[in-house]
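Q: How would the C-alpha coordinates look for this protein?
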Amino acid sequence: MLDGGSTTTKASLVRSLNYPTRSEYYIGASRMSPGYPAMIPIVEVFETGLGGTSIVWLDEANRLRVGPRAAGSYPGPACYDRGGKEPTLTDAYLVTGYLNPGELLGGALRINKELAIKAFEPIANRLNLSIEETAYGAIKLANELATNVIRVVSIQRGYDPREFALLAHGGAGPMFAPFIAEELSIRKIIIPAIPAGVFNAWGMLNLDVIHDAVETGVSKIMINNEFINEVLRTVNELRNKVVNDFRGEGIDPTAVSFEYYLDMRYYGQEYTLRVPLDYPVDEQALRAVMRRFEDRHFAEYGFRLGGNPIEIVNYYVKGTYRLPKPRLNEVMDTAKSLKDALIMERNVYVDGKFVKVPVYNKDELPVEVKIEGPAIIEEGTATIIVLNNWHARRNKYGNIHIERIIF
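A: Here is the predicted structure in C-alpha coordinate form.
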Protein backbone atom coordinates (compact mmCIF):
# COMPACT_ATOMS: atom_id res chain seq x y z
CA MET A 1 0.00 0.00 0.00
CA LEU A 2 1.39 3.39 -1.01
CA ASP A 3 -0.14 6.66 0.14
CA GLY A 4 1.49 9.65 -1.52
CA GLY A 5 0.15 12.89 -0.08
CA SER A 6 1.09 16.55 -0.12
CA THR A 7 3.86 16.44 2.50
CA THR A 8 4.50 12.76 3.32
CA THR A 9 4.56 9.38 1.63
CA LYS A 10 3.57 6.32 3.65
CA ALA A 11 3.65 2.60 2.96
CA SER A 12 2.58 -0.62 4.60
CA LEU A 13 2.67 -4.24 3.51
CA VAL A 14 -0.58 -6.22 3.52
CA ARG A 15 -0.51 -10.02 3.21
CA SER A 16 -3.70 -12.07 2.72
CA LEU A 17 -5.71 -8.93 3.58
CA ASN A 18 -4.02 -8.73 7.00
CA TYR A 19 -2.15 -5.59 7.97
CA PRO A 20 0.75 -5.78 10.46
CA THR A 21 0.51 -4.12 13.87
CA ARG A 22 2.91 -3.66 16.75
CA SER A 23 2.72 -2.54 20.38
CA GLU A 24 5.48 0.04 20.21
CA TYR A 25 6.13 2.84 17.78
CA TYR A 26 8.82 5.52 17.84
CA ILE A 27 7.75 8.90 16.51
CA GLY A 28 10.49 10.67 14.60
CA ALA A 29 12.91 7.75 14.87
CA SER A 30 15.93 7.86 12.57
CA ARG A 31 19.52 6.67 12.41
CA MET A 32 20.51 9.66 14.51
CA SER A 33 17.64 9.65 17.00
CA PRO A 34 15.69 6.92 18.83
CA GLY A 35 12.51 8.99 18.54
CA TYR A 36 9.69 9.24 21.07
CA PRO A 37 8.02 5.98 22.14
CA ALA A 38 4.27 5.58 21.73
CA MET A 39 3.48 2.35 23.57
CA ILE A 40 0.09 1.66 21.98
CA PRO A 41 -1.07 -0.84 19.36
CA ILE A 42 -0.47 0.73 15.97
CA VAL A 43 -0.50 -0.32 12.32
CA GLU A 44 3.02 -0.76 10.98
CA VAL A 45 3.58 2.13 8.58
CA PHE A 46 6.81 3.62 7.30
CA GLU A 47 6.82 7.21 6.08
CA THR A 48 9.15 9.81 4.67
CA GLY A 49 8.95 13.58 4.27
CA LEU A 50 8.04 13.53 0.59
CA GLY A 51 4.89 14.70 -1.16
CA GLY A 52 3.43 16.89 -3.83
CA THR A 53 4.33 20.12 -2.02
CA SER A 54 7.86 19.03 -1.03
CA ILE A 55 10.31 21.82 -1.87
CA VAL A 56 13.06 21.24 -4.44
CA TRP A 57 16.36 22.84 -3.34
CA LEU A 58 20.14 22.70 -3.57
CA ASP A 59 22.38 21.88 -0.61
CA GLU A 60 25.78 23.40 0.18
CA ALA A 61 27.47 21.05 -2.30
CA ASN A 62 25.07 22.12 -5.07
CA ARG A 63 23.32 18.77 -4.99
CA LEU A 64 19.63 18.57 -5.88
CA ARG A 65 17.32 17.74 -2.98
CA VAL A 66 13.59 17.16 -2.57
CA GLY A 67 11.97 17.65 0.86
CA PRO A 68 11.52 17.18 3.72
CA ARG A 69 10.54 20.87 3.87
CA ALA A 70 7.20 21.42 2.19
CA ALA A 71 5.10 24.35 1.06
CA GLY A 72 1.92 22.68 2.34
CA SER A 73 -1.49 23.81 1.18
CA TYR A 74 -0.59 27.43 1.83
CA PRO A 75 1.23 29.05 0.17
CA GLY A 76 1.54 25.75 -1.69
CA PRO A 77 3.44 25.12 -4.92
CA ALA A 78 4.50 28.15 -6.96
CA CYS A 79 1.96 27.24 -9.65
CA TYR A 80 -0.92 27.77 -7.20
CA ASP A 81 -0.26 31.53 -7.41
CA ARG A 82 -0.73 31.99 -3.67
CA GLY A 83 2.64 33.55 -2.96
CA GLY A 84 4.84 30.45 -3.03
CA LYS A 85 8.22 31.21 -4.62
CA GLU A 86 10.16 27.97 -4.10
CA PRO A 87 9.73 25.12 -6.61
CA THR A 88 7.96 21.99 -5.41
CA LEU A 89 7.46 18.49 -6.74
CA THR A 90 4.05 19.52 -8.09
CA ASP A 91 5.74 22.29 -10.04
CA ALA A 92 8.22 19.72 -11.40
CA TYR A 93 5.45 17.46 -12.66
CA LEU A 94 3.75 20.47 -14.19
CA VAL A 95 6.86 21.75 -15.98
CA THR A 96 7.54 18.31 -17.47
CA GLY A 97 3.98 17.92 -18.76
CA TYR A 98 2.71 15.16 -16.49
CA LEU A 99 0.12 17.43 -14.85
CA ASN A 100 -2.69 19.28 -16.54
CA PRO A 101 -1.19 22.71 -17.43
CA GLY A 102 -4.33 24.68 -16.60
CA GLU A 103 -6.18 23.12 -13.70
CA LEU A 104 -6.30 20.51 -10.94
CA LEU A 105 -9.13 19.00 -8.89
CA GLY A 106 -11.33 18.70 -11.94
CA GLY A 107 -11.15 22.44 -12.61
CA ALA A 108 -11.67 23.61 -9.02
CA LEU A 109 -8.05 24.77 -8.76
CA ARG A 110 -6.53 26.91 -11.50
CA ILE A 111 -2.76 26.71 -11.81
CA ASN A 112 -0.11 28.73 -13.61
CA LYS A 113 2.67 26.84 -15.43
CA GLU A 114 4.71 30.00 -16.00
CA LEU A 115 5.06 30.51 -12.25
CA ALA A 116 6.35 26.93 -11.90
CA ILE A 117 8.94 27.56 -14.63
CA LYS A 118 10.01 30.81 -12.98
CA ALA A 119 10.44 29.06 -9.62
CA PHE A 120 12.85 26.52 -11.16
CA GLU A 121 15.01 29.11 -12.93
CA PRO A 122 17.46 29.86 -10.06
CA ILE A 123 18.17 26.16 -9.48
CA ALA A 124 18.47 25.40 -13.20
CA ASN A 125 20.90 28.28 -13.64
CA ARG A 126 23.10 27.10 -10.77
CA LEU A 127 23.18 23.57 -12.19
CA ASN A 128 23.69 24.84 -15.75
CA LEU A 129 20.73 22.72 -16.89
CA SER A 130 17.49 23.49 -18.68
CA ILE A 131 14.30 24.00 -16.68
CA GLU A 132 12.94 20.67 -17.92
CA GLU A 133 16.13 18.76 -17.08
CA THR A 134 16.13 20.20 -13.58
CA ALA A 135 12.46 19.41 -12.98
CA TYR A 136 12.84 15.89 -14.37
CA GLY A 137 15.87 15.36 -12.13
CA ALA A 138 13.75 16.35 -9.13
CA ILE A 139 11.08 13.85 -10.18
CA LYS A 140 13.61 11.04 -10.50
CA LEU A 141 15.11 11.87 -7.11
CA ALA A 142 11.67 12.02 -5.47
CA ASN A 143 10.70 8.67 -6.98
CA GLU A 144 13.87 7.11 -5.60
CA LEU A 145 12.95 8.40 -2.14
CA ALA A 146 9.45 6.98 -2.54
CA THR A 147 10.93 3.67 -3.72
CA ASN A 148 12.91 3.45 -0.49
CA VAL A 149 9.66 3.51 1.50
CA ILE A 150 8.53 0.34 -0.28
CA ARG A 151 11.97 -1.23 0.20
CA VAL A 152 11.72 -0.71 3.95
CA VAL A 153 8.34 -2.44 4.34
CA SER A 154 9.21 -5.28 1.96
CA ILE A 155 12.86 -6.13 1.24
CA GLN A 156 14.17 -5.04 4.64
CA ARG A 157 11.56 -7.28 6.29
CA GLY A 158 12.25 -10.33 4.20
CA TYR A 159 9.55 -9.94 1.53
CA ASP A 160 10.05 -9.81 -2.23
CA PRO A 161 8.11 -6.83 -3.66
CA ARG A 162 7.85 -8.67 -6.99
CA GLU A 163 5.39 -11.05 -5.33
CA PHE A 164 2.97 -8.23 -4.47
CA ALA A 165 0.76 -5.78 -6.32
CA LEU A 166 1.29 -2.09 -5.52
CA LEU A 167 -1.94 -0.35 -4.51
CA ALA A 168 -1.38 3.39 -4.83
CA HIS A 169 -3.58 6.22 -3.62
CA GLY A 170 -3.36 9.75 -2.32
CA GLY A 171 -2.95 12.80 -4.51
CA ALA A 172 0.66 11.91 -5.45
CA GLY A 173 0.64 8.11 -5.05
CA PRO A 174 -0.48 7.26 -8.60
CA MET A 175 2.34 9.46 -9.97
CA PHE A 176 5.00 7.80 -7.79
CA ALA A 177 3.77 4.24 -8.28
CA PRO A 178 4.87 3.51 -11.88
CA PHE A 179 8.43 4.65 -11.24
CA ILE A 180 8.59 2.59 -8.02
CA ALA A 181 7.25 -0.47 -9.83
CA GLU A 182 9.78 -0.01 -12.60
CA GLU A 183 12.66 0.20 -10.12
CA LEU A 184 11.59 -2.78 -7.99
CA SER A 185 10.30 -4.97 -10.86
CA ILE A 186 6.78 -4.98 -9.43
CA ARG A 187 4.48 -6.37 -12.11
CA LYS A 188 1.13 -4.83 -11.21
CA ILE A 189 -0.20 -1.51 -9.92
CA ILE A 190 -3.79 -0.94 -8.77
CA ILE A 191 -5.40 2.49 -8.52
CA PRO A 192 -8.75 2.24 -6.67
CA ALA A 193 -12.02 3.33 -8.24
CA ILE A 194 -12.66 5.62 -5.26
CA PRO A 195 -10.90 8.92 -6.10
CA ALA A 196 -7.29 8.43 -5.02
CA GLY A 197 -7.08 11.69 -3.08
CA VAL A 198 -9.92 10.72 -0.71
CA PHE A 199 -9.38 6.95 -0.60
CA ASN A 200 -8.07 7.12 2.99
CA ALA A 201 -11.18 8.97 4.13
CA TRP A 202 -13.41 6.44 2.37
CA GLY A 203 -11.54 3.62 4.07
CA MET A 204 -11.91 5.25 7.48
CA LEU A 205 -15.68 5.46 7.04
CA ASN A 206 -15.82 1.71 6.34
CA LEU A 207 -13.68 0.49 9.22
CA ASP A 208 -14.86 -2.37 11.40
CA VAL A 209 -15.24 -1.88 15.15
CA ILE A 210 -12.02 -3.01 16.80
CA HIS A 211 -11.04 -3.21 20.43
CA ASP A 212 -7.71 -4.50 21.61
CA ALA A 213 -5.79 -4.97 24.79
CA VAL A 214 -2.09 -5.34 25.49
CA GLU A 215 -0.14 -6.26 28.60
CA THR A 216 3.59 -6.32 29.15
CA GLY A 217 5.03 -9.35 30.90
CA VAL A 218 8.66 -10.10 30.11
CA SER A 219 9.45 -13.76 30.66
CA LYS A 220 11.50 -16.56 29.13
CA ILE A 221 9.35 -19.24 27.55
CA MET A 222 9.32 -22.46 29.54
CA ILE A 223 7.57 -25.57 28.28
CA ASN A 224 5.86 -26.68 31.48
CA ASN A 225 2.33 -26.61 32.86
CA GLU A 226 2.95 -23.70 35.22
CA PHE A 227 4.18 -21.40 32.44
CA ILE A 228 1.48 -22.51 29.98
CA ASN A 229 -1.23 -21.81 32.56
CA GLU A 230 0.25 -18.36 33.23
CA VAL A 231 0.19 -17.50 29.51
CA LEU A 232 -3.39 -18.76 29.20
CA ARG A 233 -4.46 -16.75 32.27
CA THR A 234 -2.96 -13.53 30.86
CA VAL A 235 -4.54 -14.07 27.44
CA ASN A 236 -7.95 -14.80 28.99
CA GLU A 237 -7.77 -11.63 31.10
CA LEU A 238 -7.08 -9.56 27.98
CA ARG A 239 -9.86 -11.34 26.10
CA ASN A 240 -12.32 -10.58 28.91
CA LYS A 241 -11.29 -6.92 28.83
CA VAL A 242 -11.99 -6.76 25.11
CA VAL A 243 -15.33 -8.55 25.60
CA ASN A 244 -16.36 -5.97 28.21
CA ASP A 245 -15.40 -3.13 25.86
CA PHE A 246 -17.72 -4.51 23.20
CA ARG A 247 -20.53 -5.07 25.70
CA GLY A 248 -20.14 -1.46 26.79
CA GLU A 249 -20.95 -0.43 23.22
CA GLY A 250 -23.95 -2.74 22.99
CA ILE A 251 -22.24 -5.26 20.72
CA ASP A 252 -22.83 -8.97 21.24
CA PRO A 253 -19.41 -10.56 21.96
CA THR A 254 -20.48 -13.77 20.21
CA ALA A 255 -20.43 -11.78 16.95
CA VAL A 256 -16.81 -10.75 17.55
CA SER A 257 -13.81 -12.56 16.05
CA PHE A 258 -10.64 -12.67 18.15
CA GLU A 259 -6.96 -12.75 17.28
CA TYR A 260 -4.12 -13.46 19.69
CA TYR A 261 -0.48 -12.38 19.38
CA LEU A 262 2.76 -12.37 21.33
CA ASP A 263 5.53 -9.81 20.95
CA MET A 264 8.66 -11.96 21.11
CA ARG A 265 12.44 -11.69 20.94
CA TYR A 266 15.55 -13.70 21.58
CA TYR A 267 16.93 -13.24 25.09
CA GLY A 268 19.20 -10.18 25.10
CA GLN A 269 17.58 -8.44 22.12
CA GLU A 270 15.90 -5.04 22.34
CA TYR A 271 13.27 -5.15 19.59
CA THR A 272 10.39 -7.58 19.27
CA LEU A 273 8.44 -9.30 16.50
CA ARG A 274 4.69 -9.83 16.70
CA VAL A 275 3.68 -13.44 16.10
CA PRO A 276 0.17 -15.00 16.02
CA LEU A 277 -0.71 -17.33 18.89
CA ASP A 278 -3.14 -20.24 18.67
CA TYR A 279 -6.01 -20.30 21.17
CA PRO A 280 -6.66 -21.89 23.59
CA VAL A 281 -3.06 -21.95 24.71
CA ASP A 282 -1.50 -25.38 25.35
CA GLU A 283 1.93 -26.96 24.85
CA GLN A 284 1.31 -27.41 21.12
CA ALA A 285 0.32 -23.75 20.72
CA LEU A 286 3.41 -22.60 22.61
CA ARG A 287 5.78 -24.70 20.51
CA ALA A 288 4.06 -23.51 17.34
CA VAL A 289 4.44 -19.83 18.26
CA MET A 290 8.15 -20.37 18.94
CA ARG A 291 8.59 -21.87 15.46
CA ARG A 292 6.68 -18.96 13.93
CA PHE A 293 8.90 -16.50 15.75
CA GLU A 294 12.09 -18.14 14.51
CA ASP A 295 10.74 -18.28 10.94
CA ARG A 296 9.72 -14.62 11.12
CA HIS A 297 13.08 -13.66 12.62
CA PHE A 298 14.89 -15.45 9.81
CA ALA A 299 12.69 -13.77 7.17
CA GLU A 300 13.29 -10.31 8.64
CA TYR A 301 16.90 -10.51 9.80
CA GLY A 302 18.35 -13.45 7.85
CA PHE A 303 19.42 -15.64 10.77
CA ARG A 304 18.21 -17.85 13.61
CA LEU A 305 19.69 -18.29 17.09
CA GLY A 306 18.89 -21.94 17.57
CA GLY A 307 18.94 -22.96 21.21
CA ASN A 308 18.90 -19.36 22.42
CA PRO A 309 16.12 -18.63 24.96
CA ILE A 310 13.06 -16.86 23.56
CA GLU A 311 11.20 -14.22 25.55
CA ILE A 312 7.64 -13.02 25.57
CA VAL A 313 7.50 -9.25 26.02
CA ASN A 314 3.88 -8.31 25.32
CA TYR A 315 0.56 -10.15 25.13
CA TYR A 316 -1.91 -8.73 22.61
CA VAL A 317 -5.56 -9.60 21.96
CA LYS A 318 -7.67 -8.00 19.24
CA GLY A 319 -11.40 -8.30 18.76
CA THR A 320 -13.13 -7.33 15.51
CA TYR A 321 -16.83 -6.74 14.94
CA ARG A 322 -17.33 -6.64 11.20
CA LEU A 323 -19.72 -4.01 9.91
CA PRO A 324 -21.63 -4.37 6.63
CA LYS A 325 -19.58 -3.04 3.73
CA PRO A 326 -20.96 -0.93 0.89
CA ARG A 327 -21.56 -2.83 -2.29
CA LEU A 328 -19.27 -1.87 -5.14
CA ASN A 329 -21.45 -1.56 -8.19
CA GLU A 330 -20.18 -2.32 -11.65
CA VAL A 331 -19.48 0.81 -13.69
CA MET A 332 -21.77 1.87 -16.50
CA ASP A 333 -19.76 1.22 -19.65
CA THR A 334 -21.00 4.11 -21.76
CA ALA A 335 -17.84 4.76 -23.77
CA LYS A 336 -17.63 3.10 -27.17
CA SER A 337 -13.86 3.36 -27.52
CA LEU A 338 -10.78 5.06 -26.11
CA LYS A 339 -11.48 8.01 -28.38
CA ASP A 340 -14.52 8.82 -26.23
CA ALA A 341 -12.27 9.13 -23.17
CA LEU A 342 -9.43 11.04 -24.89
CA ILE A 343 -9.05 14.56 -23.51
CA MET A 344 -5.99 15.71 -25.45
CA GLU A 345 -2.47 14.82 -26.43
CA ARG A 346 0.22 16.50 -24.35
CA ASN A 347 3.97 16.88 -24.67
CA VAL A 348 5.65 15.12 -21.74
CA TYR A 349 9.36 15.30 -20.94
CA VAL A 350 10.89 11.82 -20.67
CA ASP A 351 14.61 11.02 -20.54
CA GLY A 352 15.85 14.15 -22.24
CA LYS A 353 13.12 14.78 -24.79
CA PHE A 354 9.46 15.64 -25.13
CA VAL A 355 7.12 12.94 -26.43
CA LYS A 356 3.46 13.32 -27.33
CA VAL A 357 1.32 11.36 -24.88
CA PRO A 358 -2.47 10.74 -24.91
CA VAL A 359 -4.39 12.00 -21.87
CA TYR A 360 -7.60 10.20 -20.88
CA ASN A 361 -10.49 10.91 -18.53
CA LYS A 362 -10.60 8.05 -16.02
CA ASP A 363 -14.37 8.16 -15.59
CA GLU A 364 -14.95 7.90 -19.32
CA LEU A 365 -12.66 4.94 -20.00
CA PRO A 366 -14.31 1.87 -21.54
CA VAL A 367 -14.15 -1.30 -19.46
CA GLU A 368 -11.38 -3.87 -20.10
CA VAL A 369 -9.83 -1.95 -22.99
CA LYS A 370 -6.05 -1.79 -22.88
CA ILE A 371 -4.24 1.54 -22.92
CA GLU A 372 -0.67 1.20 -24.10
CA GLY A 373 1.89 3.37 -22.36
CA PRO A 374 3.14 6.00 -22.32
CA ALA A 375 -0.19 7.55 -21.35
CA ILE A 376 -1.76 9.72 -18.67
CA ILE A 377 -5.13 9.17 -16.99
CA GLU A 378 -6.68 12.10 -15.15
CA GLU A 379 -9.27 12.05 -12.39
CA GLY A 380 -10.57 14.70 -10.03
CA THR A 381 -8.01 14.22 -7.24
CA ALA A 382 -4.98 12.59 -8.88
CA THR A 383 -3.05 11.98 -12.09
CA ILE A 384 -2.21 8.41 -13.09
CA ILE A 385 0.93 7.79 -15.15
CA VAL A 386 1.35 4.78 -17.45
CA LEU A 387 4.96 4.31 -18.49
CA ASN A 388 6.34 2.86 -21.71
CA ASN A 389 6.19 -0.97 -21.81
CA TRP A 390 3.20 -0.96 -19.46
CA HIS A 391 -0.50 -1.08 -20.23
CA ALA A 392 -3.54 -0.02 -18.22
CA ARG A 393 -7.17 -1.08 -18.18
CA ARG A 394 -10.27 -0.15 -16.25
CA ASN A 395 -11.97 -3.16 -14.71
CA LYS A 396 -15.71 -3.58 -14.26
CA TYR A 397 -15.61 -1.97 -10.80
CA GLY A 398 -13.75 1.10 -12.01
CA ASN A 399 -10.32 0.23 -10.61
CA ILE A 400 -7.34 0.95 -12.85
CA HIS A 401 -4.98 -2.00 -13.28
CA ILE A 402 -1.55 -1.17 -14.70
CA GLU A 403 0.55 -4.16 -15.73
CA ARG A 404 4.02 -4.62 -17.11
CA ILE A 405 4.14 -5.86 -20.70
CA ILE A 406 6.05 -9.15 -20.80
CA PHE A 407 8.07 -9.61 -23.95
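The chain has two domains: 1-206+328-407, 209-321.

The two ends are 27 Å apart (CA to CA).

Upvote if useful.
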